[in-house]
Amino acid sequence: MIKDIIIIGTGGNCIDIVDAIIDINKSCAKYNILGFLDDNPNVQDNVIFGIPVLGTLKDACNFPDSLFVNGIGSEFNYYKKSVIIAKTGIGIERFETIIHPSASISNFSHIGSGTVILQNVTIASNVSVGNHVIILPNTVLSHDDKVGDYCCIAGGACVSGGCSIGDSVYIGTNAAVRGNLTIGSESLVGMGAVVTKDVPPRVVVAGCPAKKIRMVYF
Known about the structure:
This protein has 218 residues and is mostly beta strands. Helices cover 10% and strands 31% of the residues. The strands form 4 sheets. An 8-stranded mixed sheet has the order 6-9-12-15-18-21-23-24, with helices on one face. Strands 7-10-13-16-19-22 form a 6-stranded parallel sheet, with no helix packed on it. The protein has a 5-stranded mixed sheet with strand order 3-4-2-1-5, with helices on one face. A hairpin with a 4-residue loop joins strand 23 (203-206) and strand 24 (211-215). The longest helix has 16 residues, at 12-27. The chain is globular.
């Protein structure tokens, strides 16, 4: 049975999700993309790569038979991801998990609801990934890692084994995290950072080795 699905947002991650769904459908037609929802007034009534913008996030209630997937989340708003998703008024049971066919996912891992895993991601044994996480291409999560809800992990990041990542964390492109570390909730690890020590909650770290740059204020 083909499922109708709506993508939350219209940014780059959202187009990557469209690509992933197209590739999933190549082997077996599974999804029909109805359109996008986005609060940006500049995209209303637009058609993006042949897919219409159907309204704002609150309009999700107008599609009672559709599934949803969220593509909103960047270094600028990652800590607001739970609030953004809550605007839809849609329960977790209606958010689909999207996994690109090229991703390598251990049979002994757990992937939460509404999570997106893009091209060439590797998720090793006994990894737990929470709800509403997005993992961009070529990322590696090593054995026994734990990733909380609403996280954004950018392309090429490598998290060594046994790490614990809190909720609403952003890990930047090509960042590397040493094994058995903890990254506190709502923290940000900068692009290319080499994390060798635990990161407290609500802290921005960057550099090699990674050092605290500032607190996260919101």
